[in-house]
Design goal:
Elements (H helix, E strand, L loop, with lengths): L1 E8 L2 E10 L2 E7 L3 E4 L5 H6 L7 E4 L6 H6 L4 E2 L1 H4 L9 H6 L3
Parallel strand pairs: 4-5
Antiparallel strand pairs: 1-2, 2-3, 3-4, 5-6
C-alpha cells in the first residue's frame, strides 16, 4: 500500500509518503526542493554517482513512522543538502525547513 498525505511544518507544505513493502516500510517527506527519507536512502550513491544532479536529501535510520522520521537526527546528508546548512545530527523537520 502507498499512502501520500499533505504535511505542514511551521506553515510550509510538504508531502509525506509511506510505502508498505514486505517486511519493511519506506518513509519519505518531500517538497519540490528536497527530501528526507528512512534508512533505505543511499546517500553515498547520491553523492558519488549522481552528484551532478545536486540532490538535496537526508537519511534517518531506525524510524518506523513519519512522526519518527521528522524527530530523528539525520544520520547522513547529501553534499547539496550541506550547502543549504543541513547537517548530520539535525532533526528531520529542521532539515526540511531549510529546503524552502
Amino acid at each position: 500500500m502507498i499512502e501520500l498525505k499533505p504535511l505542514w511544518i511551521d506553515g510550509e507544505p510538504f508531502t509525506a509518503i509511506s510505502v508498505q513493502l514486505p517486511k519493511t516500510t519506506l518513509l519519505a517527506v518531500a517538497n519540490d526542493k528536497g527530501y528526507i527519507m528512512c534508512g533505505a536512502l543511499d546517500v553515498a550513491l547520491l553523492n558519488e554517482k549522481l552528484r551532478d544532479r545536486g540532490i538535496v536529501a537526508g537519511r534517518a535510520v531506525g524510524v518506523r513512522t513519519i512522526d519518527q522520521l521528522l524527530e530523528a537526527p539525520l544520520e547522513s546528508v547529501t553534499f547539496a543538502a550541506e550547502q543549504l546548512g543541513i547537517s548530520r545530527g539535525m532533526k528531520g523537520k529542521d532539515a526540511l525547513l531549510l529546503m524552502k
